[in-house]
Amino acid sequence: MAVHKKILAIGDHEEDFYLLKKDLSPEYDIVRAKNTQQGLDIFAKHEDALAAIMLDFGTAMADEYAFLQTIRAEHSTLPLLVLAKNKDAELTALTLGATDFICKPYQPAIVHQRLKNLLLLHERAALRNTTEHDTLTHLYNKETFFAKARSLLDTHAEQQYALICIDIEHFKLVNDLYGVAQGDAVLRHVAKALRQQLKTFHGIAARLRSDLFALCLPLRPSLKEDLTQFAAATLKEYPLDMKLVLKIGIYPIEDSSLPIDVMCDRAQMAISLIKGKFNQSCASYNDSLRRILLEEQEILNSMHESLSKKQISVYFQPKVDLYSLKIIGAEALARWHHPVMGAISPSRFIPIFEKNGFISTMDEFIWEETCRLIRLWLDAGLPVVPVSMNVSRVDTYNPNLCNILNALVKKYSIPYELLNLEVTESAYVEHPEQVIAAVSALRTLGFRVEMDDFGSGYSSLNMLKDIPVDVLKIDLRFLRGAEETERGLRILASVVRMAKWIALPVIAEGVEKKEEVDFLRSIGCNSAQGFFFARPMPEQEFRQYLRNKAAPQERYESVLDVPRTFLWSDKEESCFIFNMLPSAAALIEYDGNHVELLRVNKTMIEQIHIQGFPSTEWSNFIEEYIQKAYWGAVHAALHTAAEKRCTEKVCCHLQTKAKTMWVRLNFFCISQEINKTLFTMTVENLE
Ligand code: C2E
Ligand code: MG
Ligand code: MG
Prior knowledge:
The chain is an alpha/beta fold. The chain has 26 helices and 24 strands. It binds ligand C2E and magnesium ion (2 copies).
């Protein structure tokens, strides 16, 4: 059965409706609304199912005019045929958006034919519309936008334009969390706001793909300000639990002969400047971006020649054992000495190589150089340490990865133990299956694999237990925010502790300060790499390092390491001696306010009747045990001991469960960390 087109007929005149229906119903499905309000309800619910609207004007006409206005404000393009007794209404009706006007009394056959014509025209226009417009938002699609923008620029050469791209930050999350229908609704909302803006902006708008919109508008001084306001207003009140933010990139068109897609790229580059910056929603493509682009082009132009001329070479940075301070390994790092641009940092060229695929060629070169040099060192009888080589995320896609590395090991006869591989954590997070498969195969061959830059890719420790990896590398630089240092270090301590639970060794990289070394040792992290010990160095220099392996420790001298490790140790002899001390002794930590007991000996427990851990007595020793009159003196003694790194004594009344004792407390500073100082405390009974 053929499906009839649905016509919404609005009007309260029974006779007219009967006549109309009689004439049209063999061909159309007539849905009736007795008044404009009913008509609006049906329109709101079934707009997509309707083919046209026929509106019978009553005598007052105000409601009918309002109806026309509402329908057109909703951007409906439905054919709208008005039937009216009053010829005077014709101009107003047409102005407000009626498609056609027929005066009563009318001949049904004429109404029929006019309706048919309107539907035909509308269908043709709709057909053109679907090829020119994005079906979801009804904005131009990419192809139309490119063509229209080109013709705009060509025909208005005297006017300067801007190409603007708009992106909804974290839009993918909307689809993931709330479903595609909600995602579509957000896109339609933005499109509607854009259409509204075009009334004042005078230009063209499109949805290029997914959540990427584009505008081509005349450039004017207030454009950036206006767009910032637009970004702030558009999604501010949008009813969704998550906060949605628009990011806008502006490319002021200087050279209108550039292809439109290049202009769009530039506007998107401007967006990339402000991605993730919560207080900035709008950025322009500017000189610094242009410089970056030119530099990128130079990098691309010269990479092949540079590699073949060995302007790209391998440097080595030692890894150090924090207890023996011996070199336990090294990392091979690429260095580029460009004939024109000078030294280019890997963090600049590696991402470009990863984008264009050249990274695989460069990595193979670095791996081969590393193997060749290890062979040289072995032949020279040097005490060679394991060297780790970086494996880019792109390499993990190469089905030949294992063969390539294996062939190198064979070619240079290198024991597998001397080659470690570093795979960045974010690669694991982005493509877990791929990377897990590649890494498993490498480990089966005999390579140790280190997870590089742990903490930068947001994998969880829980995930680690299922991931094949031998070592975690944590970069202290990720934890070093301006005010967040202490927090970062606490996170580091927890990660090290948890990694121990799953028997995963941790190496800290980016270690720059002596305090960091002390801290790492205090939390049981045994190996480190960083400028504090040595910067990455060329092969000749590194050879020297290998030769006199003692070099790095000359720079490091910790405060009383021996007692510290000794006191913390759980080895039997340390426990024995600690417990056999004739006086009450404790290991305490002081943060400027509170003294926390970390470890107490037997005599201390017997003398002051300390409760079992955990209790407030452990974390609040001063308040719990010392009479208030002496608090000031005890704090002063602790401060002086910490400052002068000496022993300080203070006499006070100690209040135990059983009695009050007159004692002397001796504080001896062992080490200082961020905001915390470690002491031994002995308690002498003076009575
Ligand atoms: P990465 O693998 O995490 O390498 C460690 C980076 O930290 C190196 O940067 C090193 O010079 C730097 N570094 C070491 N100690 C310190 C320190 O104490 N303070 C500071 N601020 N930095 C320190 P580099 O050499 O610039 O390399 C950056 C990244 O580029 C590397 O990070 C690695 O992801 C990549 N990369 C370097 N060489 C290669 C390579 O041959 N192949 C691949 N695929 N990637 C490489
Ligand atoms: Mg690395
Ligand atoms: Mg790293």
